[in-house]
């Protein structure tokens, strides 16, 4: 279980790049970054599968279809939902709603814990919720709430869609790996990466819905495209393949309710990296929120991992 905890922490830390990379590819858009990222993810996934083709022997056609579906809605679908949400409702509401993932998964996971553990994790989860509020407090205070954006309702719906997609991806991925214990986590991550790349190409015509596809106008063979290529490769390999590998590895060893709490490293690293890019110290409320997140996550892990009577979910591996 300890390696599963480490894998979940690593996945969250790597996924924090998703908050940073779109800021560093101008004059290109996040849609351009997504296109490069998912194509790189597919190529990387194909490469892994080529060298690990023996691992495909125990994987059925149904498993391959499921991995492609996870890549389609868990990565590309999530990206489009977030992009539509931010474009329609602004940059404040979507992160606030999507950050509820660990809270919702924690509540869903209550049924897998014995009564003592349920009581012990309530307070740590409240600390995590308070930390999330503080991390976003500065944005709330500085936002202009005098008028709602024209597409607020659409943005609200897309935000909750992104929340639902993430939760569904986490639970479904865990369930598939639980039923098929012979599936190797790296092979599974490679299949999901290939699925995400194929889906991005198929839904490329929908790009105008979430923003301009600047690649068509600017091209790729110019100096300004180097950050786009670099971050596309980095996020395609790290965020799509390596982080999915780590998350799938964790899903085979710890409950999703616990793994989601550990993913708070995504928020913490996003604060650190964002501060480095901006060249300024994080706001005090962000630092206080980060501290509460650390304490809450540590207390949650202790409450579950240290409880001798902890009732494991029946399917993850030890």
Provide key terms for this protein.
318 residues, disordered C terminus, single chain, mainly alpha
Outline the secondary-structure elements:
Blueprint: H1 2-15, H2 17-20, H3 30-51, H4 61-89, H5 93-98, H6 101-108, H7 115-135, H8 137-142, H9 152-179, H10 185-202, H11 207-210, H12 215-218, H13 226-251, H14 256-262, H15 265-278, H16 284-305
Describe the structure.
- The protein has 16 helices and no strands.
- The protein has helices at residues 2-15, 17-20, 30-51, 61-89, 93-98, 101-108, 115-135, 137-142, 152-179, 185-202, 207-210, 215-218, 226-251, 256-262, 265-278, 284-305.
- The radius of gyration is 20 Å and the shape is globular.
- The protein has one domain (2-305).
Percent helix range: over 70%
Number of discrete helical segments: 16
Main beta sheet, described?
none
Shape: globular
- Number of beta-strand segments: 0
Helix and strand content put the structural class at mainly alpha
Rg computed from alpha carbons, rounded to a whole number of angstroms = 20 Å
Give average pLDDT, whole number.
78
- Beta-strand residue fraction: under 5%
